[in-house]
């Protein structure tokens, strides 16, 4: 690392770790305004909990099952509408959005105008030459460089990276991240014969919190493809149990509650599924020569609404700073820990 020579240390752009909805929204806003942005994602796909599984012609959404328009701030609302892929959910009277090809259709449309490096888990962060360059290392040992660094990942993962990289520094920021709490969710995907079992109006019970038929919701050619999100209590107690234990119980639950046989089942695990305690701040910032920020669904009330408000607040801040350097400094001092926009 000491032998690395950077030709243009002042023109390296923004590094964003995490290609969930917060990271993609920030990267899109910045790149649309002429900023150089590179996004790093540890998984093969983008979108975080906007997640979809495909198999043998069926499609299952196994993260967020829909998006409430009221959770989307105006600047993002207009951008998403322009993509032409959001449709009204078909199985409920109140307005909510889905994508007919699965929810990952949305993040795939958003990753335009900037580079996304997939299967790239960042494990170490360092401040580079002159204190004005960020250097981040992936698990393959490759170093990547930027002038600003944004961690757009769940708070426990961000805290782990910072604690491993700066064990004696950023104490206040790491303590703030520890205040963000999540609950896990176990999700089961499977198939039933919907020709025999047309009704799925199920009440919440001690095991299953949400049961969605993806075809009934509006996903093409997927009638009978069930997504079952299990309750917080059940998920906590059974999160680390073998798949077979969970699947056996869910198979029996479906047979008892619906009179149906469910087949082709798989378990999906969301360790940081839903925020149970968020911060009021729209984002966190380290007070260093090189700017470092943390954004995501742990801010502004949590959920997709919190993630979008967090990303847009940081985008506004960074774009204002780039327009007028001096006024940007003043703006950061006043607003970097300001309350979330309403």
Folded structure, characterized:
The protein is of the alpha/beta class and 342 residues long. The protein folds into two domains: 14-46 and 111-180 and 278-335, FAD/NAD(P)-binding domain (3-Layer(bba) Sandwich), CATH 3.50.50; 182-275, Polyamine Oxidase, Chain A, domain 2, CATH 3.90.660. Helix content is 31%, strand content 26%. It has ten helices and 17 strands. The protein has helices at 21-32, 74-83, 105-110, 155-165, 171-178, 214-217, 232-238, 243-258, 303-323, 325-335; strands spanning 14-17, 37-40, 52-55, 58-61, 86-88, 97-99, 115-117, 122-127, 134-138, 143-146, 148-151, 181-191, 208-213, 225-230, 263-277, 284-286, 292-294. The protein has a six-stranded mixed β-sheet, with helices on one face. A four-stranded antiparallel β-sheet has the order 13-14-12-15. Strands 8-9-10 form a three-stranded antiparallel β-sheet. A hairpin with an 8-residue loop joins strand 5 (86-88) and strand 6. The longest helix has 21 residues, at 303-323. The model is unreliable at 326-338 (pLDDT under 50).
Give the helix proportion (percent range).
25-40%
- Strand proportion: 25-35%
Overall SS class: alpha/beta
Rounded to the nearest angstrom, the radius of gyration is 21 Å
Write out the CATH superfamily name of the largest domain: FAD/NAD(P)-binding domain
**CATH top level of the largest domain?**
Alpha Beta
Listing every helix as H and every strand as E from the N terminus to the C terminus, the arrangement reads: EHEEEHEEHEEEEEHHEEHEHHEEEHH
Number of helical stretches of at least 4 residues: 10
Note poorly predicted spans.
Answer: 326-338
* Total domain count: 2
Which strand order does the major sheet show?
7-2-1-11-17-16
What is the CATH T-level topology of the largest domain? FAD/NAD(P)-binding domain
Largest sheet: 6 strands, mixed
Secondary structure: number of strands: 17
């Amino acid at each position: 690392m000491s032998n690395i020579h950077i030709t243009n240390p002042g023109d390296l752009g923004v590094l964003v770790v995490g290609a969930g909805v917060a990271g993609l929204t920030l990267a899109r806003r910045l790149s649309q305004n002429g900023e150089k942005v590179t996004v790093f994602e540890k998984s093969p796909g983008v979108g975080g909990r906007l997640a979809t599984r495909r198999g043998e012609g069926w499609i299952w959404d196994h993260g967020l099952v829909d998006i409430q328009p009221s959770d989307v701030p105006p600047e993002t609302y207009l951008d998403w509408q322009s993509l032409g892929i959001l449709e009204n959910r078909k199985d409920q009277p109140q307005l909510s959005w889905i994508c007919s090809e699965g929810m990952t259709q949305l993040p795939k449309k958003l990753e335009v105008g900037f580079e996304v490096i997939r299967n790239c888990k960042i494990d170490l962060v360092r401040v580079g030459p002159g204190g004005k360059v960020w250097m981040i290392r992936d698990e393959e040992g490759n170093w990547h460089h930027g002038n600003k660094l944004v961690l757009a990942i769940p708070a426990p993962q961000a805290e782990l990276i910072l604690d491993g990289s700066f064990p004696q520094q950023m104490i206040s920021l790491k303590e703030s991240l520890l205040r963000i709490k999540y609950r896990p969710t176990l999700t089961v995907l499977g198939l039933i014969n919907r020709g025999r079992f047309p009704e799925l109006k199920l009440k919440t019970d001690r095991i299953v919190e949400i049961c969605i038929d993806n075809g009934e919701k509006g996903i093409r050619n997927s009638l009978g493809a069930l997504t079952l999100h299990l309750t917080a209590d059940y998920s906590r107690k059974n999160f680390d149990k073998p798949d077979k234990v969970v699947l056996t119980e869910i198979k029996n639950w479906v047979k008892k509650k619906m009179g149906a046989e469910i087949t082709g089942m798989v378990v999906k695990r969301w360790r940081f599924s839903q925020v149970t305690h968020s911060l009021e701040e729209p984002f966190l910032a380290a007070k260093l020569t090189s700017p470092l920020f943390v954004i995501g669904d742990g801010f502004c009330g949590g959920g997709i609404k919190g993630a979008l408000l967090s990303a847009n607040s940081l985008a506004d801040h960074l774009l204002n700073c780039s327009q007028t350097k001096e006024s940007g400094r003043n703006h950061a001092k006043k607003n970097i820990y300001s309350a979330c926009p309403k």
